[in-house]
Amino acid sequence: MPLGYTDDAVYASGGNPYGTSWPAGSPSTPPDETALACARFQGARLARFATLLAA
């Protein structure tokens, strides 16, 4: 579910309107809190739309 520019979390994590992303690097470099906040927003958006479509 693309995010577009629907929330400030999108801008804070780099402004990717297609979805949350994190560069693949060292396995010991986990996503930062900004990227995780954007991913949570994207997951909640997907769940909301899935619920609407299932109804």
Structural commentary:
The protein has 55 residues and is mainly alpha-helical. 49% of the residues lie in helices and 0% in strands. It contains two helices and no strands. The model has no long low-confidence stretch (mean pLDDT 83).
How are the secondary structure elements laid out?
Blueprint lengths: L7 H5 L20 H22 L1
Please tally the helical runs, counting DSSP H or I stretches of 4 or more residues. Answer: 2
Regions with little confidence, pLDDT below 50 for 5+ residues? none
**What share of residues is helical?**
40-55%
Separation of the first and last Cα atoms: 18 Å
On the 0 to 100 scale, the average pLDDT is 83
Q: Quick one: biggest sheet?
A: none
Summarize the structure.
With 55 residues, this protein is mostly helical. It is built from two helices and no strands.
Question: What would the keywords be for this entry?
Answer:
2 helices, elongated, 55 residues, mainly alpha
